[in-house]
Write a structure and sequence with these properties.
By secondary structure, the chain is an alpha/beta fold. The chain contains six helices and eleven strands. It has an eight-stranded mixed sheet, sandwiched between helices.
């Protein structure tokens, strides 16, 4: 007795969806190009998981890139008027990604500049206080300097409170590992990963840490180990279990 299925079986739900949120309308613009090449190498080993990059570079319109099973599945043009350092943009992108690419767990990489809990001349009207900032965006689209608009970490936390709870946030930017930043973000993720110091411009070795992000249990340790090995332990990293 032979039976046939008319419709192909649905893909099982992914274990994890990770969003890499790249704020590169600044002097990190060239690094964004090389990190995307590393991402394209690293995504070959993510299996049935989702890796999504919000790629916002100087002098280019933002694009959403979706990778799964070692392939680029979608390349979606995004609103060119959106400001990557606007908390509303972060919330909208994260909501869209975690809705369109559901998984059992979620992760976020904050790619760009940051001041952690230091003072920053933040002139973004909707960002709140002029300190505790992430991002760095030139509203002119220039790739010169660190950017004239920033996102306040407190406002970031409020935006992320409206998206699905995340397994981790990796701050691939300077100065973001401190008790104050971890406390602000404690309710939106299980693990907070970052450096208390400045990091090199080319940041994380994405070809190595992207597979690590998809590990079920020890992802936070693997991310730190591979990051530290890349720079011979010269980049201080820490993990906070937010509970």
């Amino acid at each position: 007795d032979l039976s046939f299925k008319d419709d192909p079986e649905e893909d099982p739900i992914a274990e994890r969806t990770v969003l890499v949120y790249m704020a590169a309308q600044n002097n990190l613009n060239s690094y964004a190009h090389y990190d995307l090449l590393e991402i394209e190498e690293g995504m070959k080993n993510i299996g049935n998981n989702h890796l999504v990059v919000y790629h916002d570079r100087a002098m280019q319109d933002p694009v959403l890139l979706h990778y799964r099973n070692g392939e680029l599945c979608d390349s979606v043009p995004m609103d060119p008027a959106a400001v990557v350092c606007d908390p509303a943009t972060l919330k909208a992108v994260a909501k869209r990604v975690f809705t369109d690419y559901p998984a059992k767990g979620y992760g976020l990489v904050l790619w760009g500049h940051a001041s952690g809990w230091l003072m920053r001349n933040d002139t973004l009207a909707y960002a709140g206080a002029r300190r505790r900032a992430y991002g760095g965006t030139n509203m002119s689209g220039s790739n010169v300097g660190a950017g004239d608009k920033w996102m306040n970490v407190h406002m970031m936390a409020k935006a992320l409170a409206e998206v699905p709870h995340m397994k981790f946030i990796l701050a691939d930017c300077c100065n973001m590992m401190c008790a104050e930043c971890a406390y602000e973000l404690k309710d939106v993720c299980d693990y907070y990963i970052g450096s208390a110091a400045e990091i090199p411009g080319n940041g994380a070795p994405y070809d190595q840490i992207i597979p690590a992000m998809m590990e079920k249990e020890t992802f936070y340790q693997s991310i730190c180990d591979k990051y530290a090995t890349k720079y011979n332990d010269h980049v201080p990293l820490a993990v906070v279990k937010t509970s």
